[in-house]
Structures are given as structure tokens and as C-alpha cells.
Amino acid sequence: MSTPRMTVMLGAAALTLLSAGCATKGYVNKTLDPVDQRVGKVEQASSENRSSIEQLEKGVARVDERAMAADGKAEDASRQAQEAGRQAQDAGQRADGARQIADNNQSQVQGLSTKIDNLDNYRLVATKSVQFAFNRHELTDEAKATLDEATSGLQDRTNYVIEIRGFTDSVGNGNYNLQLSQKRADAVLRYLTVEHSVPLYRVHMIGVGDVEPVADNKTKEGREQNRRVELRLFAAAVDGASNLQAARTTQEEE
Length: 254
Hints:
By secondary structure, the chain is an alpha+beta fold. The protein has helices spanning 3-117, 141-151, 174-195, 220-226, 241-253; strands at residues 123-131, 160-166, 203-207, 228-235. The protein contains 5 helices and 4 strands, in the order αβαβαβαβα.
């Protein structure tokens, strides 16, 4: 075969191969382009999904934070409500106590009002008299026995007062007799307060000398009766019928 012919044949073969290769590459490109497009879309969708997931996770995190904050606020509110409940209970107890105090005060005021209204209702419920020797102010055993009897039961009484008045006979100077009568009254007062624990504020004492004789000073027997200390027990109607009844009983015993 001649060289020119070979050259032509080789060229033709080369053209054939080149033409076949171009056709194959075009086919491949035509086939792969749609795949690449789908892959691109999948990757884009995947990327969008990842972004959505991230946004969702962030939203969930925010919701969790809000839920935790809400739980904290709920716990605080619960504690505050419990504290408010305790304070309300304490306030209620204080109110009850205040009402009780007010009721007690009202009762005391009413009782005091009753006592004030009855201050002038003291009545004489018992009278005793003790005698003294001439020119003496010491208590005799008989006088002490009389005072013991007069003070029996006083510890069970309330709202009473005792009046002590000292006297002498008409023998001697008037000023001296006045001082002697005071000493005799003082002797009775000391015996009642020391031996029988009679409160001093319940006792009123005075010496009046030789005035108000109960017998004739011209006779020895009369002068003996005038050398005396009179003790009078007064009780008020403050404590009701029981106190008055006790007073009547004592007076009847006299």
C-alpha cells in the first residue's frame, strides 16, 4: 500500500475514533447532568434541613429555658403563697388574741363599773368591842380572843373595810385621853395586821378620846365599859349575793 493511501486511511480512522469519542462524552454529560442536579437539590434540601433542625434545637432550648424559668417562678410563687398563708394564720391568731383581750377588758371595765356604782353600798355587817385596863393600852388575852373571833373568815372575803375607833373614860385631861385612845386603836390595828395579815389598806383607825361614852362615867362599871376600842366590819355589795349573804350571816351571829 502506498504511503498517501495509508495516510488517508489513518486519518479516516482517527476521525472515526474522534467522532465516536465526542459522541460518548456528550452522552455521558447528558446522562450525568440530571443526576448532578438532583444531587445538588438533595444537598440543598439537606442543608436546609440542617438549618431547620438547628433553628428547632435553638427553639427547643429557648422553650426549655423558659420552662425552667417558669418552674422557678412557680416555686417562688408557691413559697410566697405558703409564707402568706403562715402570715395570715399568725394574723388570725393575733386577731383572736386581740378579741379575747378586748372581751376581757370589756368584762373588767364592766366589773369596775359595777364596783364604782357600788362604792357607796358598804354596809355594817359586824361589830366587836374590846376593853382596856385603866390608863393602859395593851391588849389583854380576852381582848385578843375577841379580835381572833372577829377576824375569822376574813381571808375568804373581798371588798371589805374595817373601822377601828379608840375611846377612854372621862378621867384625866382631854388631850391625854385623846392620845391614850389613839394608842389603844393602834394596838388593835397592829394585832390585826401582824397576827391576822389583814391588809393595812383595808383598815381605818382613829382615837376620839372620852367622847361618845356608852355608859355612865360616874360609876366604876360605866368607866370600864367606856375604856374600849370598837371594831366595825363593813362589806360592799360588789361581789353579789354571796358576799352579802356572808355579811348577813356574820351579823346574825353577833
